[in-house]
Amino acid sequence: MDSAGAAPDQAYAIGDIEVVPGRLVLQSPLGQSQLEPKVMQLLQALVARVGETIHREELIDTVWGLQYGGDESLTRAVSLLRKALQVPHGVGNLVRTIPRRGYLLDATISKIQTRTDAKSSGDTTAKLLLAVLPFDNLSSDPETQFFSDGVTEDIIERLIRGTDLKVIGRTSSFQFRDARKSEAASELGATHLVDGSVRRAGNRVRISVHLEQSDTRETLWSDRFDRELENMFAVQDEISEQIALALDRKMEAQRQSLMAPEIYDLYLKGREWTYSTHRLSDAVDALEQVTAEASDFAPAWGALARNKAMIRMYHPVQMRNELDIGVRQAIEEALSLDPQNRDALNAVYQRLDHFGPMLEHHDAISDLRKFSANSGTGLFLVSFHETCIGRLSAAYDAALEGARLDPLNPISASYPAIVLSYMGHFQKTRQLLEENLQRWPEEAGIRGTLITTLASLGDTKRLAEISAPKVLQQHPLGEFSLTAEYAAILARSDSVEMKAAAENLVDRILDKGSADLFSLLWISQLGQIDRMYETLDRVSIGPTGAADDDIGTVAYRTTLLFGYEMRSARADPRFMKLCARLGLVRFWLETGIRPDFADEIDYDFEAECRANADVPIDTYNPFSD
After folding, report:
1. 427 pairs with which residues across the strands?
2. What is the rounded (10 degree) CA torsion for 259, 262, 266, 271?
3. 317-341 burial string, b = 16+ CB within 10 Å, else e?
4. What does the pLDDT look like over 310-348, one tens digit per residue?
5. Rounded CA gap, 40 and 62, in Å?
6. Are 297 and 259 spatial neighbours (Cβ–Cβ below 8 Å)?
């Protein structure tokens, strides 16, 4: 069908780009893109009349309907489509703007069989899972362990970034040191292992590396590298390329300039991923020294952006505008040097208001998703965002893959169970979270979700054990602090006590004049749906700058709306007004994305979206400029 429109759900190609409309997928030489439903509808409208100018008003009516769509919706969709249609060394835009008229698709359309369809289901390359174990530190000074760990982590990052290999995350693979290395393949499910050693002496380093197949213990490649310390980036590229070659994979190397050893040491110390605010501050100090000395080093700018964004989330809202200046500067520097820097893309998402700009959330996650298909931490963020927009099935799929790639990272490993709890699969959730809690008793998110799960199951005995005051003194719940108190009330199932507890929460909200989503969740779960909605009509939603504002990574996130506990609240059409106030209705209308609950309710989801389209979005940060 050369230069002719494609059938609605039939796969086709636009030059070197494969399009699978039914799966909302574009596969280009630069990787796979998942399009929003409305963006795919726009592409289909352009393909149906390829080579022909289509007026803006006609496109808006076709994709959104003139009642809701507007110029901003179309402009954004065209921008996203152009980004997805980029090809290496491409010339111009395939979607051309025709001034004062509309848009034209300037391309040749051809019928194809997709690479996905052509693949054998037994393709062994898809099953390959690589673990890079922490290289042994053979230096005389044990304090240089951070250096050998940093070398290993850089190789992991290069393989994730430069190949399509599935690579176990650092947090998981670094659990296996010394004698425990023999357990790594079976514990992690890795088909191949990379191991090695680092010996640092003065200004020189010797790195020995070998790659083996796990089931046969056959060495597929090994080598030794003697280099000057300032050439570390070159040797890490060389090692990564050799590993990829031995596994029959292409490697896109990320070339870096020379760096003084003492600056590289600071970078390795500052790049650590942590949720400790004290350690984050130390890391920021180190990375600011690195960027001052090596202003063209994108990884340091990216790590700095990520760490500053994390610190910002743990400060009251009235302090965030000033902190945001440093976050934005680091993001801009990192992405100007490397548009694919995952740490900087992470920071773009983390710095956004927790509700309101949901389109910006989705755009940030879409960029991160493109470069995180083989990253456990990246897939966790993708999964978390999917829960925030009400797509629990998609969230579970991403969470499972993230846990597979980083099975000993408490955040990645526990998130499939947390999504299952949202779906109401409490017995399976309990089993998984009990296992996780034994391994990571200090993780507040694991303990908090297990507490609510036990309350839903009515297991008051086990609930009392894991939420006893002495236990919570040792393992505080932080931003989940309401959980233990109200879960115990819920588990006792005393209707009078439950109503009194809900009224207590209502009084606190009315006194403050603003609601947080944790309190709304518990009012709903305690059975007071009408009181929740009546209260919402009298107050704002979000932080106020008061001492009792929720602070942290989950505070005021819309993920709380889509748990099983809120199912009765979602069954009420008033739920759509709440979603509108948080920016979700505008997001669903703009993108065409449907949350899972839309197929579970008795009222007309699309009609209620349209009815609430003009409801003002609450202000997340009243101190914003």
Report:
1. none
2. 40
3. bbebeebbebbbebbebbbebbebb
4. 899 888 999 999 999 999 999 999 999 999 899 999 999
5. 12
6. yes
Nearest Cα neighbor of 398 from 365, 441, 446, 433 is: 365
Residue 203 has pLDDT above 50, yes or no: yes
Residue 91: both structure tokens together = 């010339």
With vertex at residue 263, the alpha carbon angle to CA 258 and CA 268, rounded to the nearest 5 degrees, is 105
Query: CA quadruple 271, 274, 277, 282: dihedral positive or negative?
Result: negative
CA angle 150, 255, 133 (to 5 degrees): 30
Strand partners, 102: 55, 98
Q: Which of 45-54, 212-221, 276-285, 359-368 has the lowest mean pLDDT?
A: 276-285
- Could you report the per-residue pLDDT of 537-576, keeping only the tens digit for each? 999 999 999 888 888 778 899 999 999 989 999 999 999 9
CA angle 486–487–493, rounded 5-degree value? 95
Q: What residues contact residue 268 under an 8 Å CB cut-off, 6+ apart?
A: 146, 147, 149, 150, 153
**Nearest-angstrom CA–CA distance, 36 and 389:** 13
Contact 498, 506 (CB under 8 A): no
Helix (H/G/I), strand (E/B), else coil: 201: strand
Please give the structure tokens belonging to residue 597. Answer: 């609950």
pLDDT, position 163: 84
Which of 249-258, 334-343, 479-488, 531-540 ranks highest by mean pLDDT? 531-540
DSSP code of residue 468 = -
Per-residue pLDDT band for 66 (boundaries 50, 70, 90) equals low
Percent of the chain past pLDDT 90, that is, above it, reads 55
Instruction: Identify which of 372, 237, 117, 595 has the alpha carbon closest to the alpha carbon of residue 364.
Output: 372
